[in-house]
Amino acid sequence: MVLSILRKMDPVTKFSLTLQILGLTLCALSLLCSAFTFQDYSDALGKSILFFEGQRSGRLPPNQQLTWRGNSGLSDGSSYHVDLVGGYYDAGDNVKFGLPMAFTTTLLSWSVIEFGSSMQNHLENAKAAIRWGTDYLLKASTATPGALYVQVGDPNMDHHCWERPEDMDTPRNVYKVSTQNPGSDVAAETAAALAAASVVFKDSDPSYSTKLLKTAMKVFDFADKYRGSYSDSLNSVVCPFYCSYSGYLDELLWGASWLHRASQNSSYLAYIQSNGHILGADDDDYSFSWDDKRAGTKVLLSKGFLEKNTQEFQLYKAHSDNYICSLIPGSSSFQAQYTAGLVNEPLVALFFTLRLFSSRKLASKGSVYNTIFLQGGFSTKQVRAIFNM
Asked: Sign of the CA dihedral 86, 90, 96, 99?
């Protein structure tokens, strides 16, 4: 919306407003970040991506940066006559949980799609982290017709002892969902991960991208045709560790949305239009996680409305607005609860700034700045110091 407003302004006003937004953004960020440099943030991004190398399962590549981590889980799936070597361990455990792994892969891909051009020398490592996940998800999706392998390792046994994956001696049981024991949630999330990753690799590795997208379509069809929650099918194997508390409807809409984004196939647009209302399109939700995808879906589809004027997605933009507003201090709608101190985050102030500008509430400089920062929890002294008021 901000961009659409700017386009309608005369050049002088547009330039002036752009400078105000830029200046306000930089000043807001400077409250917390004045002591940090670009290099500090680059290092933080690099270390965030490096974390995934420490979670790798399988035979590690020659360019592995964390050399203290060794090969592990090299026989995963072998007792079931399938190859499930690779993927990621979960949260310091030695279990490979399919639902959070797929969600992580989806979000890594989304990050690269949106911000890859700013990642500079970290981009290739980010793409490698995605590929490590999708290589495994491809195996899990194609090993057995009519089934999706969703977990390796017995979490109940694994949690009895904390040990290095290179030394683990706990059972490497394999679990799957099938036509008889469905898991629409984990299957649709897997489809979302593969579809999102196909966008990442579309230019750099077209053949791999095509493989990802084709597999995503098949897995989504499986998820949609054989409906049910994997928590019901696998019970104590996944609960209470990664129960699908929100059900599977949110993942179906999320998966279809990513397939629409990746393929531009009109059938997915039709699916979203026909099924959206029963899959959560009308719900306002104020959290986004490995379990509940509704808020993320609204934001993803909103981009289709804002960037391509896909009118069918206007509803999703309205719900996205509600979600963003819930994060803004002083909002008249539902208010997210913050841990003490976090309400002063400059990022929240920045969101509030953009919301004000986008809704054309351009009052005097002083009133706008005061509204943004005083409602954001900043003191009058801070505001006046920043803007020389």
From this structure: negative
B/e letters for 149-176, b = 16+ CB within 10 Å, e = fewer, are bbbbbbbeebeeeeeebeebebebbbbb
Q: What CATH number does residue 41 fall under?
A: 1.50.10.10
Number of domains into which the chain is organized = 1
The whole-angstrom distance between residue 341's C-alpha and the CA centroid of its chain comes to 25
d(CA 73, CA 84): 9
Residue 90 and residue 57: Cα distance in Å, rounded? 10
Residue 221: which domain range?
36-247
Domain presence at residue 316: no
Report if residue 325 sits inside a domain: no
Summarised one tens digit per residue, pLDDT across range 274-316 is 998 888 878 777 788 999 999 899 989 988 777 777 777 888 8
CA pair distance 202, 184, nearest whole angstrom: 26
**Is residue 367 included in any domain, yes or no?**
no
- Block residue for tokens 């361990």: 89
| 181 inside domain | yes
Structure tokens at 39: 């290099």
Model-level pTM?
A: 0.79
345-358 pLDDT, tens digit each: 444 444 444 444 44
Position 130 scores a pLDDT of: 98
Residues 6+ apart with CB under 8 A from 367: none
Q: What is the identity of the amino acid at 261?
A: R
